[in-house]
Amino acid sequence: MSQAVINFKIDSKLKSEAKEVLDEMGLNFSVAINAYLKKLIIEKRIEFTVPEIPNARLRRSIRNAEKLIKSGKYTVYKTHEDFEKALLS
């Protein structure tokens, strides 16, 4: 198998943090990048994930819902139709 070299620029903090994680896993950048590129070729897609950290609006909604639950001032609907009727009234 012939070898090729890829050079790219990366934020130094990102590189340092990635190196720490790879070291903990017993891997190096070459192994990690090769594995990633093989996955890219097989799947023909790049997957981006977003951390599951709620934004300010969602955190506020969750707090409000928790307050309603604690106060007991909420309605339970037995059917979807009952819920829909309440929404439309």
TrEMBL record:
GO biological process: DNA-templated transcription; regulation of DNA-templated transcription
Domain of life: Bacteria
Pfam families: RelB
Keywords in alphabetical order: Toxin-antitoxin system
Tagged with keyword Isomerase: no
InterPro entries: Arc_rbn_hlx_hlx, RelB/DinJ
Sequence similarity: Belongs to the RelB/DinJ antitoxin family.
NCBIfam families for the chain: RelB_DinJ
Protein name, UniProt field: Damage-inducible protein J
Organism: Candidatus Nomurabacteria bacterium RIFCSPHIGHO2_01_FULL_39_10
